[in-house]
């Protein structure tokens, strides 16, 4: 039988390697995207929104330093336990 002078076994090998490389690249791209999105979703300082609100209230003079430190300690304890 004549198959049109194709690549034969070498062609199958090239296609197999190409397909494996393609899927490896797809998986690596997905992992890189997930890591990037996780990294950009965090605040650089590691502070939470609750700590930011607390700092704003202290800056405006709504709470004194003692209350600020007490509440900040409570927030950091909860974050350590989580």
TrEMBL record:
InterPro entries: SHOCT (IPR018649)
Record domain SHOCT: where: 50-75
Residue spans crossing the bilayer: 6-34
Domain of life: Bacteria
Pfam families, A to Z: SHOCT (PF09851)
Key word Membrane present: yes
Alphabetical keyword list: Membrane, Transmembrane, Transmembrane helix
Protein name, UniProt field: Membrane protein
Biological source species: Saccharopolyspora antimicrobica
Taxonomic lineage of the native organism: Bacteria, Bacillati, Actinomycetota, Actinomycetes, Pseudonocardiales
């Amino acid at each position: 039988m004549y198959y049109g002078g194709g690549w034969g076994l070498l062609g199958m090998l090239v296609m197999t390697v190409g397909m494996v490389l393609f899927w490896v690249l797809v998986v690596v791209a997905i992992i890189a995207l997930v890591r990037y999105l996780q990294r950009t979703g965090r605040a650089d300082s590691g502070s939470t929104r609750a700590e930011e609100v607390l700092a704003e209230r202290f800056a405006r003079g709504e709470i004194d330093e003692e209350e600020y430190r007490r509440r900040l300690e409570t927030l950091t304890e909860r974050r350590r336990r989580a």
